[in-house]
Specification:
alpha+beta; 28% helix; 2 domains; DNA-binding; Nucleoside Triphosphate Pyrophosphohydrolase; Arc Repressor Mutant, subunit A; elongated; 250 residues; homodimer; 3-stranded antiparallel beta sheet
Chain lengths: 250, 250
DNA sequence: GAACTATGTGTCAAACAGACACAATAATAA
DNA sequence: TTATTATTGTGTCTGTTTGACACATAGTTC
């Protein structure tokens, strides 16, 4: 999906689209930003098309900024979806075309291969806004069974699979947590992505051993019981860990 | 590049291509299969276009089989290259078009985004064969500085980077070595991909701990000095390791 | 103020990684 | 035929990391 009434199919390359799985973390749950399509009320991933002079990364940035209001989002290509039948069951979009809501909608009838991006964002900073084809932009639990169009459910699952794998050799959190956070919050994030529980004490030891955290002299007040210390990421080391990887067998 | 004189641009989707980085291992060196273009004598990766009813994976399989003679090759998408300028410096292909060697060559003047695949093959089983646009198909050392067209040198480097990363959480070798191989050969493969030396004894201990090897009651004769034992991969465990990963931090 | 619950810190044994020693083998040189 | 030599097979030692678990501490709840 792309922005507003200014959509002109002439601006874009045929057959190529992109879809963004935008992950956020809130209340101990992993969320995905979704759009609800006008008329059919089915759900879709934020997506768009490739401008004639754009890189895919630029196009994804454009989409991400339009839907979240944020610039400089952490994102990564993770897979191209090219099944020729992936857009055939496209009842939702066909219905939309039939409404005649836009003169250029026949563009959507073509076959598209879609490049999947996943993005990690700070939930609290996102201002979700729908695009021309949708009436609502909202967070959904990553596991929630909702009527997604096309192969978008599959795209979400693949993104999560890749994210999980990356967790074992790359740090994660800078893009998903507020600036200051507690160790239990960071642990909950890891547990949520991995889908299993971790030992509190061993988790802390390991995270600290990566040297990517700065412990602050502040505690998080207001919660129940003993107030935990706040941490922030050490950006220099975090960046280094992103480039070089965390451990690995060889 | 695609096969023979039967090329018809109508069979393919506009703007989408794929390039294959085909890795082989021979004489302790990591090789890449290349094509030498007719007329300009520059080098290119084996590649092709996406048929109107094909998945990208099918298209890659087609290309791989045409260039190597092999079916069932291990391969993986690793990145999409979408810089709008990536085909602008396309002197080689422009020259080819100017020869009028094929009526349909103006197809190549369009902008293409290319999906990169890497493939791992048994060097000894490959029968390299050029395509319609090239006069030679040959192995090159992965580090060799040769005049590659477009961004193909960059594509190779990226493929190697991804391969290296995968080495730390996935087994490699089944697709690159003959059925029976020695421990020193396997080690040399790892060292070549990683670009650094490993301790012989620690390497063996680690590989055996993965349980993906069957030690045979045979030794490799003919070499100099003490003859090493032969091993084969335990396919069941190898497959399991591919799916589940080898170690990892979490 | 007592009870409670989550956090901060520490211990222990088992598994693992990195560095290195020595014996065995088969081709080569004498 | 025998000694030499390069390579392979196997093992040890030490320091580090991991996984399982115990106890003290701080702030809320009753």
């Amino acid at each position: 999906m792309t922005d507003s009434g200014t959509f002109k199919s002439d601006d874009f390359l045929d057959h190529i689209s992109l879809d963004c799985v935008i992950f956020g973390f809130h209340n101990g749950e992993l969320k995905v930003l979704t759009l609800r399509l006008k008329y059919t009320k089915e759900f879709a991933l934020p997506g768009g098309f490739l401008g004639k002079e754009e890189t895919l990364e630029d196009a994804a940035k454009r989409v991400l900024q339009e839907r979240t209001g944020l610039k400089d989002i952490f994102m990564k290509q993770f897979k191209v979806f090219s099944d020729p039948d992936r857009s055939k069951t496209n009842v939702a979009i066909q219905d939309l075309i039939n409404t005649g809501a836009h003169p250029d909608l026949h563009f959507f009838e073509k076959r598209f291969i879609s490049v999947g991006f996943y993005a990690l964002v700070d939930f609290t900073k996102v201002k979700p806004s729908p695009d021309f084809f949708s009436d609502k932009c909202e967070w959904k639990n990553v596991n929630e069974q909702a009527p997604y169009i096309l192969d978008h459910k599959k795209i979400i699952e693949k993104a999560l699979e890749v994210l999980r794998r990356q967790l074992s050799y790359q740090p994660i959190g800078y893009n998903l947590l507020p600036e200051k956070f507690t160790m239990p919050e960071l642990q909950k994030l890891y547990e949520t992505i991995l889908g299993r529980e971790l030992d509190r004490r061993n988790f802390q030891r390991k995270m600290l051993s990566y040297k990517i955290l700065n412990k602050l002299d502040e505690r998080k007040k207001g919660g129940a019981y003993k107030s935990p210390f706040l941490y922030e990421f050490n950006l220099e080391n975090y960046q280094k860990a992103l480039n070089e990887g965390l451990s690995g067998s060889f």
